[in-house]
Design goal:
Strand order of the largest sheet: 1-3-2-4-5-6-7
Keywords: Hydrolase
Structural class: alpha/beta
Number of helices: 12
Pfam families: Abhydrolase_1
Order of helices and strands: EEHEHEHEHHHHHEHHEHH
GO molecular function: hydrolase activity
Number of domains: 1
Shape: globular
Largest sheet: 7 strands, mixed
Radius of gyration: 16 Å
Protein name: Alpha/beta hydrolase
Strand content: 15-25%
Length: about 250
Amino acid sequence: MTGRVLPYDVHGDGPGRALVLHNWFGDRSTFDPLRAHLDASAGSYAFVDCRGYGEARDTEGDFTMEEVAADALAVADDLGWDSFSVIGHSMGGKAAQLMLLDAPDRVRSIVGIAPVAASGFPLDEESRQLFAGAADDPALRRVIIDHTTGGRHAGPWLDAVVDRSTSRSSAAAFRAYLDSWSGADFHERVRDNPTPVLLVVGAHDPALGAEAMEATWLRWYPNARMEVLADAGHYPPEEAPKDLARAIEAFLAA
């Protein structure tokens, strides 16, 4: 089924084109706060639902990063986009790199928002049980979200993120994507890739913050740079959407 065009919608009609891939905990609606701050006259942003999420919640698939990359390229074909940038949040950042490898002449740049590296995200046994268990247990999803945002958010905010995550993703897809984004290591294939990369991370993200970027992305992409958002953890599109929009637009304009 790889390559089918999945649900998406386009924000803006400007010349700067970007495909936008969501994180493990949410569908494309997680970018709604960000969209409110994007200049629709400057860019065209195609927000995509991965299989098992959002409007594609019941769509079957293998639920791998390779499949996400192929599906996103099919969306670009559907739009008639010959070249574009890719914005990927968390697991979406790993899929963005596979798009670059699959279509190097089409992907102009990458914006990684707290992105998973090409090497994956190794988990010890305790962490793997926690993450795997979150597929069927909303309470464990809440624990992970609270931890990766630095324990800074009140209960209603956490509950809303968990509720959206469980209602807009299938447990089977959620569980299967975990193995793909955390496990596969293809960093030798991206080493020294000259594509421009912007990494935007939250200062309160203990998992995929500045230290993780320095150990991975910034070593492998010579034209990568990083911006740290002071008021965000792992979810800048929802925690600091205005600052994130500013960083994205400045990078794409350049």
